[in-house]
């Protein structure tokens, strides 16, 4: 019997919590001792991966005690901003819920553009609170944007009934040749994948959206309360998604750059390459769903 089995079967809940805390402390110390890296090292690595001044970058991230980064979450944002410069743009997601968007809207909780926290991790929430960052007024997929094109990117997102589809910030990002940085998260964290679902909805082997048009309440930046209408993805689409097929296509074409710094895994690609790979998949008779 393994040590893990002993812990599971013979220790009390209190003892399990104790050993879990101890393990986390020891793991963090080992990582800080042998796998740590500084903000300046992170900036250098981002540059080596191909991020340059003037870039527009969509960031998906996870910040924990085990990344190895010696600074705070806000300093990771500083590093990215230092690389892309004042002429660049940094974008993050700031969804306010976990789980089903349908269930979230059915709860009827108002979405306050200025005050509702992001549940997309510490880096996203730190970015939301940063001076100058703008947030789109969409209850399902609000983006955060800082940079020269931020106002244009977030504009009219509340009027888009398919929140990731045509006319949304996701389509606008394509016009800016946007790159995507994954900071210790998997490719499947990419919200832009929902844009692909909308783009190829007509030829999908499943029904992509629910028929029901849902109401929700938003409180905009001026404090005005308004009702907006939104479609959500269908249960069939959610349950049969096969987004790894897109990642595999990117890897096969060497369109993802992967690096390891400290205990952090970085990946960099671009949205146009993702769309091109999706087009290849659909043209070959495949899709992003298990059928």
Give an overview of the whole structure.
The chain is α/β, with parallel strands linked by helices and 291 residues long. The chain has two domains: 34 residues, no CATH class; 248 residues, no CATH class. The strands form two sheets. A seven-stranded mixed sheet has the order 4-5-2-1-6-10-9. It has a three-stranded mixed sheet with strand order 3-7-8. Helix 3 packs across helix 4, helix 4 crosses helix 6 and helix 11 crosses helix 12. It starts with a helix and ends in an 8-residue tail after the last helix.
Provide a quick synopsis of the model.
39% of the residues lie in helices and 17% in strands.
Structural class: alpha/beta
Give the tally of structural domains.
2
Number of contiguous helices: 12
Mean pLDDT score = 92
Q: Percent of residues in beta strands?
A: 15-25%
Number of DSSP strand runs: 10
The main pleated sheet reads as: 7 strands, mixed
Gap between N and C termini: 40 Å
Task: Give me the strand/helix succession.
Answer: HHHEHEHEHEEHHEHEEHHEEH
- Shape assignment: globular
Neighbour order of strands in the largest sheet:
4-5-2-1-6-10-9
Based on CA atoms alone, the radius of gyration comes out at 20 Å
Counting copies of identical and different chains, the oligomeric state is single chain
Please bin the fraction of helical residues: 25-40%
Uncertain runs are none
């Amino acid at each position: 019997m393994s040590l893990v089995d002993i812990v599971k079967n013979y220790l009390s809940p209190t003892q399990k919590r104790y050993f879990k805390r101890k393990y986390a402390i020891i793991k963090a110390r080992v990582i800080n001792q042998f796998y740590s890296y500084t903000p300046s090292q992170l900036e250098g690595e981002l540059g080596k991966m191909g991020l340059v001044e003037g870039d527009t970058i969509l960031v998906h991230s996870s910040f924990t005690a085990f990344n190895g980064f010696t600074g705070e979450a806000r300093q990771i944002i500083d590093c990215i901003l230092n690389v892309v410069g004042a002429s660049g743009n940094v974008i993050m997601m700031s969804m306010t819920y976990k789980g089903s968007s349908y269930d979230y809207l059915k709860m009827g909780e108002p979405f306050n553009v200025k005050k509702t926290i992001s549940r997309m991790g510490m880096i996203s929430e730190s970015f939301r609170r940063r001076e100058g960052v703008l947030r789109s007024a969409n209850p399902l997929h609000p983006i955060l944007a800082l940079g020269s094109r931020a106002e244009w990117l977030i504009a009219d997102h509340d009027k888009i009934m398919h929140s990731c589809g045509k006319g949304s910030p996701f389509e606008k990002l394509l016009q800016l040749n946007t790159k995507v940085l994954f900071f210790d998260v998997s490719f499947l964290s990419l919200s832009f994948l929902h844009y692909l679902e909308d783009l190829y909805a007509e030829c999908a082997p499943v029904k992509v959206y629910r028929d029901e048009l849902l109401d929700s309440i938003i409180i905009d930046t001026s404090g005005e309360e308004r009702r907006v209408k939104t479609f959500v993805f269908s249960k069939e689409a959610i349950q049969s998604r096969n987004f790894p097929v897109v990642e595999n296509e990117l890897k096969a074409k060497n369109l993802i750059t992967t690096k390891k710094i400290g205990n952090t895994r970085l990946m960099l690609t671009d949205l146009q390459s993702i769309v091109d790979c999706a087009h290849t998949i659909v043209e070959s008779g495949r899709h992003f769903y298990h059928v």
